[in-house]
Design goal:
single chain; 350 residues; alpha/beta; ten-stranded parallel sheet; 5 helices; flat
Length: 350
Amino acid sequence: MSRSLGSIVEALGGELVGSPDTLIQRLAPLATAGPDELAFIANPRYASQIATTRAACLIAPSSLRTAVSERGACIVTDDPYLYFARLTQWWRREHASVVRAVIHPTAAVHPSAQLAADVDVGAFAVIGAGVRLGAGSRVGAHCVLGDDASVGAQSVLHPRVTLGERCSVGERCVLHSGVVLGADGFGFAPHQGAWIKIEQLGAVRIGNDVEIGANTCIDRGALDDTVIEDGVKLDNLIQIGHNVRVGAHTAMAGCVGVAGSATIGAGCTIGGGAVVLGHLTLADGVHVSAASVVTRSLLKPGHYTGMFPIDDNANWEKNAASLKQLNRLRERLKAAEHAIEQALQNNTKP
């Protein structure tokens, strides 16, 4: 299972300092790496660990070249974090077991479904009428693909993914277990104290190179489609409401909630547990801190935070009570300022 440093550099580039014959058994964190393991250091603030790590080799930036080369083998590159990311992909490909693509005998595949070459369908999966599966796509055990759904080439649906009717997934996507695409959006009209369902007639469209974490739900649109553009990365347990549009290469951390008809631009990041209210617009390049609640459109790129800092509960209650008085205090302050101005004017000699 080992790979030589020479083979790594040959595949990924970088400047190797040390023997290309050095064998690497696994990739490991800097602090815990052993003498047959490869680690990376990207931030100079961790430079103190260069002398203490037991790693066989370090991936490092040119700014740390002298320090890392003095302790032993290293791979010098402009962006160690990016290099390490590509290394993990290469390492997985190198060590992946070869599995022959098969349609499991317990899978239910509708006769009208179109399966391209090298499609793999797991046990007890259900492939509906008119479904299209691209070349090399994988559908895990117990997945359900509704009528006329489509999955692009080389995309992977892990076990228990549900893809609703007419929903589409692009190429090279990864959907982790429990993902639900195309459940009905939360649309109801109030009438005489009851709620009348608004049928959700749209679908969900997922672009290329999208990754969606476990148990994330993306609702179908009411009329138009819910759209997730190319390169978007969604963590676990995210809720995307109906008719939301998420721009290319935006990333959201776990437990984010996006209400219906919100539009989120390209290249945004939204921290864990944050909420974006419905019908709002976030411009390209907006970054929202974890646990924030976005209550208005953010039309300029930048970093936004909206939260009340955590504190001892007794102090929090006192501060919360003070916040309730802010408007009254504001009015009192305005009145005091006005009174001072009047007094100054009355005392001013002509």
